[in-house]
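Subject: mismatched residue count in predicted assembly?

I count 951 residues in my input, but I want to confirm that the predicted structure covers every chain. Input:
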Amino acid sequence: MFLAILAGFLLAFAAPLLHRWLGKWVLVPMALLPLSIFVYLLTLSPAVLGGDKLGELHAWAPSLNINLHFFLDGLSLLFALLITGFGTLIMLYAGGYLKGHPLLGRFYLYLTLFMTAMLGLVLAGNIISIFVFWELTSISSYLLIGFNQDKEKSRNSALQALLVTGLGGMALMGGLILLGMAGGSYTLSELLERGDVVRNHGLYLPALVLLLLGAFTKSAQFPFHFWLPNAMEAPTPVSAYLHSATMVKAGVYLLARLTPVMGGTDEWQYTLMMVGGITTVLGALLATQHVDLKAILAYTTISALGLLVTMTGIGTAPAMEAMVVFLLAHALYKGTLFLVAGNVDHATGTRDLTQLTGLSGSMRYTAVAALLAGMSMAGILPFFGFIGKELLYEASLQESPFRWMLFAVSFFSGMVFVAVAIALSYGVFWRRSTSPTPLQHPDKPLLYLPPVVLASAGLVFGLLPGFFVTPLLRRAAESMLGVEQVFELALWHGFTLALGLSVLTVLLGYVVYRYANRLLSYASRFNRLYLFGPANLYQLTLKGFLIGATKITATIQNGYLRSYIVAIVTAQISLVILALWDGGPRLELGNRLHELSQLRLYEVVLLLMVVSALIFLFKSQSRLTSIAIMGIVGYSAALLYILFGAPDVAATQLLIETLTVVIFVLILHKLPAFKYLSHASERYKYVLLSLTFGAVMTYVILIVKQYPLDSELKAYYGLNSYLLAHGRNIVNVILVDFRAFDTLGEIVVLAVAAIGIMAMLKLRMQKGDKP
Amino acid sequence: MKTIVLATAIRILIPLFIIFSVYTLFRGHNHPGGGFIGGLIGSIAFVFHTMTHGPQHTVDTFLKLNLYGYPRQPNQSRSLYLMRMMRVNVWRRRKMARHPDMKHHMVRIESVYIIATGLFLAVTSGVLGLLSGQPFMHAYWTDFYIPVLGKPGTPILFDLGVYLLVIGVVLKITFVMSEE
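Triage response: the counts match. Full output below for your records.
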């Protein structure tokens, strides 16, 4: 498994190079990778279907309990197969969709990077590595949405998706760490067995809130749903792959994965059911308000994600069963429909539902795929979507205080799904029309084969549910429930209530389709409501954030060196006083006064020199004098160091003083004339501040000297600097050997400072220039 | 600021400064001194030179390399060509300067290059330990002893990196401040 991930990353970064070498044939290696991983996973599947849980451990940062741990059970396998199987088709499709695009190599880089990250996410067995891969998917999604970088809308949407999912990712990190603390482990397989410990832990609630935030932003749940429709700016292969079949399901995956650990409590159940329910209804409602094919699909995806979350929230065995079945069915038909929409867009140049008619004649295969997928979406009998819908109804109709509400939610969304399915497959392709939309180019095999394959998978799974799908889904449901599942999927359940409801859904859905135009005409009336929607809130927050940042920067970074120093010094004084105010050590000078008699003459002379120099500095009328006086102070300090036996420090101080004076002299003639512009009181204010600072520091040092220095460090360095480090100068040995890493950091800072000075003084940018 | 006394003195003093700075660098392990102090001493020499002669002159005098060379013949082997170029530039400079076929290139040593070299040396001394499975910054010492310079080891390499970096940084700051 590790090799698969590694190969993915390697191939991803080789993609631009391969594109240069192979031209349009770059799609062959790019599609072979997911295909081979798919086959590899299939070879592992007998073991997993037999009930095994495969693990693979690679040490990463063992001291922090973070390991690259892979973990394959039913749920992971379901997702991994979906990611790689669908990935293979998408790679082929992208080759056709972006044929001749100069940046095809880069596109494959991002797409493969995403695929690998997503694969890592579902295979990860350590919650920290889950987070790492989670963030990688967010970043690659950002790159993919912004692929058409020359369009401003595309860039904004990408940033929006990144901000929303990135903030969610941060919350997720907090949640995962809290979860790790509560469960006492970062390893998934251990956490899965400690569900009771976690649920009764005091950190459960904060962890839950943060985790849900992460999952909801990723899976576009209300009120974070707004980024998903905007993400449709991405090229269609991306929309199909990331924003309908895989990435947006990462949140659902996380919820499903953590159900045995965190699920089952009231908070979990009610939050998921409520948020999921609202999202379902909202997504379905908004889907009827649009005419853009991709927007409609995006909103129905949001609705479907809401249903998945709701089902996870219910948490009973039938609900979980319904969730996994619907997840697979949705990925198959929604992916197909996205590909079909991209295909139509590519061939006709428009995605407007009202302009597209009668395409079945000119795009025969695409039309077939659309028909198959549409029937699966609508839940017509022999398709896999039908089984999913039946199970959804059964699950929501179970005994529970909310059964009617849950049923209404799934019924409403089902109705809209039917209407959308009819509009997309029948309305665009098969409805008779005297003037079919003209094509710009004929249907291409690379563009119609993937959707046809996907859609037929929906049909095959529906006809033969027992073949491979049932055992896989059983194991997937088992991962969430912790108990082995024995359900059987069958097309025909007899004349049950669910069947009747299915028929009713289709009929009502058809009615919605017939009156869709009237629904659309109401669309403009909602505009005012959108002003209060989360999308607008996001814009306002973003704008406010920028304005606030500008204001704060203007206040704090005002460019006057003196105000920075005043801020630093004041902060330090207040912190020290705060620390000494209450319960701090008190200064006792009484029995130390006799130490004054030990004062040497030259120490007094130095002190007098510094003090008189400072007084003189205050009165000085020229810059040169001031610099020279500062030099005197510095040299006196160096002399003090020599007197107290620190030659290294003294030498450094002397040299630095010299250099400071010389460099000051170098730039002296460029400075404006030396004048006192401020009022004298202004100066006394600074003098007062300096005196306070000096007094506080003196006080602190006197207190420090009050206690005997009892440290083993001195003895340690004294003993070891010659024996271990072959040097007799302890200061230097500490600098270059014992604590060389600190020195390295310091010299890096020095180098960066030099570059910064150069940038500040040398590079005068013209306004509007790019840096 | 051109004063004849300082200008003449500094020309004689610079080699002394540099020798003394290198001496300080190497004695640092056992006596007061070290890369930082050595670097400061070395850079002060150049700073004074800049102060008296101007930055352009300092660069021309100390930080420019004349490289001699001729284009490689089509059938000449690359390694042979490289070795010949090295010989031309190292051992036979005087003679080659007057050769008619020779073209010479001026290479200006930017102070940023010195900074980069210093950082590179410092990091290398740390990575050496890492490569042989020890922790980062693990120190290696040789068994022999060189008079004046002391015992060679990776901390000395690190100190040399600090020395070069400090010189580079001070030179950069001085040039930036005094040019314009």
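The first strand of chain A starts at residue 54 and ends at 61. Marking this ticket as 'not a bug'.
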